[in-house]
């Protein structure tokens, strides 16, 4: 089973959605059989590397909301995250550019470490308040997730994997994906948003049942129509 997930490390719902997907995969006994392809989607490609002011003021200006409204919104998101087993510290969050973080994710995919690196990036941003545009921070996080320090540092000072990030975003535009998280299962079913675990479980069961049925019809091999290009 192939699952594609478009997300951004500045998006709390992407962190929650990733956690819900993993819980659903575990509940359905498919954690070892699923191939998750993590795809890039920058919510704000023009974001500067380090923005002044705290996150509440930044969100207030971005969405034309009062500071108290913003705090209530982030507290609600934090409660959703806590239910999923995540710790959100919006008071520490640094709004910043995530392009290099996405490049690191693509680099990690080459060694099968994308899931671990993605988890480290989300945790560093939303729990620890780390700056994901700082390359020294990215190298450190990559090392903790199992990447070679020297190779990761060398990659980040180059422009490698930038085209891979843009390709993911181009594919998202082609598929008319306008918000994240966004999931595509076996090129047949799509789920938008940080849906509850049960929603993911229902889709996983449906995809698995169809794969098994097609496998029986084809004498043990399955071929599925590519509905998403």
UniProtKB/TrEMBL annotation:
SUPFAM superfamilies, sorted? Thioredoxin-like
- Which InterPro entries does the entry link to? DSBA-like_thioredoxin_dom, Thioredoxin-like_sf
Source organism's superkingdom?
A: Bacteria
* Molecular function GO terms recorded: oxidoreductase activity
Domain named DSBA-like thioredoxin is located at 3-204
**Annotated protein name in UniProt:** DSBA oxidoreductase
Which species does the entry assign this protein to?
Answer: Leminorella grimontii
